[in-house]
Design brief:
This is GntR family transcriptional regulator. With 247 residues, the protein is mainly alpha-helical. 67% of the residues lie in helices and 3% in strands. Helix 2 packs across helix 4 and helix 8 runs antiparallel to helix 9.
Length: 247
């Protein structure tokens, strides 16, 4: 039976209070993750320094230091005066040649290891999402599943990443959600490569099936479907990898 818990979205988990206060680099890391994963949109205005400090459980001085680091990385622009504030500057999308070069550098054993890690995290998150998610969670997951409909290239890759983030957030497990965020930051761009070999129609169907299993509170089915979805992705990447080495 589904438990009526308050649901943490991917955004709320990213902005949850830090375990260690006074650490500007931790605040900066959270904000970098939120920007690079697309949780914060390009040109979106960030909350005020005071609001960020309250959300993260740190001082405004710490937030200010973190924003300085983000400005130096070109991920945030601060405007003064009326209508001012800090605004997101999302990094430019990498092109297909960049992705191909990255995939060439990864061995098949590394791909399998990445897949094993992702299967363990995403599968567990999907099972817990089915058991714990609220009506609001289910709606977010279903909306994220539909975002892949008709998407191609980088838009499809972004929709893939957002879907799995929403499933992780629906698991009600901050630790699992942070593990999903870690994997997305480290390997997400590689896993969901927009190389044209990705089939968004099939992926959208799979996302809808996972979302339906979560809505039906069928944890085992949600886990199995998620694991198979990721394993199929790893197999496809392995084939692309071998094609690239042979070209």
């Amino acid at each position: 039976m589904r438990r009526p818990l308050t649901s943490p979205s991917a955004r709320s988990v990213l902005f949850a209070p830090l375990d260690q206060t006074g650490r500007a680099e931790l605040v900066a890391r959270r904000l970098v993750d939120a920007i690079t994963l697309g949780v914060l949109a390009d040109q979106e205005q960030l909350p005020s320094e005071a609001e960020l400090a309250e959300q993260f459980g740190v001082s405004t001085v710490t937030v200010r230091e973190a924003l300085v680091a983000l400005r130096q990385q070109g991920l945030v622009q601060t405007k003064r005066g009326r209508g001012g504030g800090s605004f997101v500057c999302a990094p430019p999308e990498e092109n297909d040649e960049t992705w191909r070069a990255r995939l060439r550098e990864v061995s098949l054993s590394e791909l399998r290891d990445i897949g094993d890690d992702y299967v363990a995290i995403a599968g567990a998150a999907a099972r817990l999402a089915a058991e714990r998610s609220s009506t609001e969670d289910i709606a977010r997951v279903q909306m994220a599943a539909e975002d892949l409909d008709g998407a191609v290239g980088t838009a499809a890759a972004r929709a893939e990443r957002q879907f799995h983030l929403e499933v992780a957030a629906a698991s009600q497990s901050p630790r699992l959600t942070h593990q999903e965020i870690r994997l997305q930051s480290e390997q997400g761009a590689l896993l969901w490569l927009p190389l044209g070999h990705h089939d968004p129609v099939t992926a959208c169907t799979e996302h809808r099936a996972i979302a339906a299993a979560i809505a039906q509170a069928d944890g085992e089915l949600a886990r199995k479907l998620t694991e198979q979805h990721i394993l199929d992705t790893i197999d496809r990447l392995g084939e692309v990898h071998l094609d690239l080495l042979g070209s």
